[in-house]
Amino acid sequence: MKRPFFAIVFAFIVLQVSAQNIRGTWAGKLEAGLMKLALVLHVDNDSTCRVDSPDQGAKDIAGRVVYVSNDSIQVKFPSLVALYGARLVEGELRGTFIQGLSAFPLTLTKGDLVRHRPQTPQPPFPYRTEEVTFVNDDAGATLAGTLTLPDGAATVLLMVTGSGLQNRDEELFGHRPFFVVADYLARQGIATLRYDDRGTGQSVGGDVKNATSKDVAQDALAGVKWLRQSGRFTKVGILGHSEGGMVAFMLGAQGEVDFIVSLAGPAVRGDSLLLEQNKAIGGKVTEHMTIDQVRANVARQASPWLDFFVDYNPQADIAKITCPVMAINGGKDTQVVASQNLPVIRKTLCEDKKNYVKEYPGLNHLFQHCKTGLPSEYGEIEETFASEVLEDIITWIQQLN
Questions:
Q1: Which of 27-31, 56-60, 298-302 has the lowest mean pLDDT?
Q2: In this predicted model, what pLDDT tens digit does every residue of 75-100 receive, in sequence order?
Q3: Rounded to an integer, what distance in angstroms lies between the CA atom of residue 204 and that of residue 179?
């Protein structure tokens, strides 16, 4: 699986001799190229500190104070090979974050990060939840998740996250889209099981470093089998986002699920998808990029996940699917471009009146209403998941009964 992006962003700092004025929590935003990432620094004492990257679900990354004076602090985070140095000026820590050969200005202000995410569900909830585990025996992986159980639910969806190591809520930039979707479905009588990816959160075991989308699919299959063996449900479907949508196609081809909801699931070979992604995000910088260049870039990274992805073509699996499929994309998605992928899905799927393929104008890869669709917008948008998409998902599922 791909490594999360936070390996590009953390830091060293500059404290005071007694650190009295700098102890506590500081928050700010790191602008690294096209990405804007919130960082939260916790200065515990004159020798230890921690940093969070809420946008990526990373918390309590251990650091140490290298230097402290009356008006400055230096902090190092060995696991990130990163430093941050700053001076206390007018109540702000103003400094530079350094990682590898890259250096970025970073200003932190006192206090924790405050974000407005109005769709994040709040208790009390009109349904039950259970913390569960299921096992992929072949991989030696134990996956931990949350089973959301409205009263009388006969239908359940296994929820599979996008690429990278993600927790069960698919948490990113302070958004928790899978929590939002699971809550909405539960309030409409549909159960869900969402789980931490292999090697993430409470999920343990399995080869993380060399895992590919095929391994992700095997973990998901273990979840589907666990749900069937529970005997609680008459229908077991799968809802996947991005890579998870592609995994949904894989399991559909194997006849393992009763229906599929693919949210921005790739439908073309990985090298072609990455080429369009680079052009959509990079603009003029990448407009003349070729597939050969994409593949050369992938080869240099020596990533098993990417090696598999660039060669895998979902169309063969999509053609084998006989269960009903809902496949949707945002019209401004720059990661899985709708105009490249949805026509292939329409053309390749077996004829079935229950299939539902749709492009949503104005929505990005996370199904947020947006301006540009670029990843740099994700954290700036308060909306987590478009309400019209939630409504269409539940309407489509209910029509299958």
A1: 56-60
A2: 999 998 999 999 999 999 999 999 88
A3: 21
Do residues 317 and 249 touch, judged by C-beta distance below 8 A?
Answer: yes
Check if the beta carbon of residue 34 is closer than 8 Å to that of residue 375.
yes
- Which residue in the block uniquely carries the two structure tokens 């700010």? 28
What pLDDT score does 57 carry?
Answer: 67
